[in-house]
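During the reporting period the student researcher (J.K.) took over the structure-prediction task from the postdoctoral fellow and processed the backlog of single-chain submissions. One of the processed entries is reproduced below for the supervisory committee.
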Amino acid sequence: MKISEVVRLTGATVVCGEEKTGHEVEKGFSSDLMSDVLTLDTENLLLITGLSNVQAIRTAEMADIQYILFTRNKKVTDEMVELAKENNMVLLETSFSLFKTSGILYHAGLKPVY
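J.K. obtained the following structure tokens:
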């Protein structure tokens, strides 16, 4: 699924990495627990989370995750954008809940990690 499709389906806003909206993600993982994210070993992954802080960006960096969708109308800070740009990440924001966002993307064909 292309990032542009994720944006369309979830009504998301691209905060950082607009030039990468043509990139594909194969799987999605929804979590607010960054310790769970660190256990993943999957490429082309979309992290769906409501945890909007620098720790989410740092965790994604350590897990080699380039695409993050923040839910529940959480706003990305300037510090988060700066760190994401340094790591060539895409940051998206949606007003949908974590549950609704995950359901929409799963229904549209985004595969789960497990």
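The committee noted the following: The first strand starts at residue 13 and ends at 16.
J.K. will present the remaining backlog at the next meeting.
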